[in-house]
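User: For my dataset I need records formatted as: sequence, then structure tokens, nothing else. Please produce one.
Assistant:
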Amino acid sequence: MPPQSAECRRLDALLDRELDGELSREQSEFMRAHLAACGSCRERRAFHSTVRGVIDHALRDEAMPQGMASRMLRRLDEIQDAEEV
């Protein structure tokens, strides 16, 4: 299910950067607080983290073009959203 609230959409926009360790302190604090309060976003982050881990493991010895992981995760989200309809 796509994010509903403005805070959920903000978190969703930060997920890839968070998994890459690229968030500012303020963004990290926002994510921590929001994830503590929002089960749907916790599930979404866990899904993204799992997919990222599978991709990282499968491609451990391969160089991935810049931005490819983000594009793949967005596409997986689109597929998942389409299946839920």
